[in-house]
Amino acid sequence: MGCGGGSKNARQDIEGDATTSDEEEEVVVPDEATSVTNNGDSFLGSDFAMKNSTTAAARRRERYCLVACKQMVGLFATVWVRRELVPHVGHVRFSCVGRGIMGRLGNKGCISVSVSLHQTSLCFVCSHLASGEKEGDELRRNSDVVEILKNTQFRRLCKRSGRKIPERILDHDRVIWLGDLNYRIALGYSEAKKLVEANDWTTLFEKDQLKTERENGVFRGWNEGKIFFAPTYKYSWNSDNYAGEDVTSKKKRRTPAWCDRILWHGDGIVQLSYIRGESKFSDHRPVCSVFIVEVAVLDNKLMKAASGPNMKVGAEELLYTQTTK
């Protein structure tokens, strides 16, 4: 496979016709990146992990290895794995789809990362969909989802040992889609704010655009965990106040909304947690999810040993703090 750096085993198929068994790996997915770095791609063994990691990432440096990273304008995606799993990672590829100005530029759109872990294909889609809270703006977001699924194309690889190497998002065994999906709450500011202050997430969620659009067929076949946290958008800078609380002009108000979401597609995925963090570096709050993911491995002791309980990681390692609102 054409990728730079890393061990040979990490870049090639695991060959053989042995029967497979399902092992479980834990996947932790933070929604917002905590740093933005240089353009271009990075693969296994990149110096990026050492030079541009955040303080939290530096503490985990001994346990995790950067598999891949990619930037497209303001979008930035990274995939990390436990060091013990690096020899079993392969087929690292990227695909970017711009959905910004003229439906092409990269200020909106997605970065998709395709990897294989043992005998299972995984895809991570990091997206920033169309903004706006006017009536009808949700249709532009729906269109972004359709075009991303249609136009994401991973580089074709030679088939080996009868294995099918996925080229589209939905060809993968397990898919996680995360990012600023930008779906809003179909309520006025004052009404939504009252529900937020009452922590009435159930009533508020009934007006969630993503919920409504999924019921109408967008993201058909995808799953999302139940939300038990406050809307993640829009906050005043370095503040716990929503932006509308600090302005007098109604034009500058933004109705609180769950813009930042994590969805998944495929069997063998169990969500353990779905939470938000409280870092204030953005007008969004980050969200994080922990999953147990089934991975097919060759039926031998060596690979089973690489997939044991010591692979577990908690969500608290990726978020600064968590508070209940």
TrEMBL record:
Gene Ontology terms describing biological process: phosphatidylinositol dephosphorylation
Residues annotated as domain Inositol polyphosphate-related phosphatase: 3-299
InterPro entries: Endo/exonu/phosph_ase_sf, IP5P_plant, IPPc
Gene3D superfamilies, per database record: Endonuclease/exonuclease/phosphatase (3.60.10.10)
Phosphoprotein found in the keyword field: no
Keywords (A to Z) from UniProt: Hydrolase
Region of interest (Disordered), ranges: 1-38
Signal peptide: none
Molecular-function GO terms, alphabetical: inositol-polyphosphate 5-phosphatase activity; phosphatidylinositol-3,4,5-trisphosphate 5-phosphatase activity; phosphatidylinositol-4,5-bisphosphate 5-phosphatase activity
UniProt biased composition (Acidic residues): 20-29
Protein name per UniProt: Inositol polyphosphate-related phosphatase domain-containing protein
Organism name: Eragrostis curvula (weeping love grass)
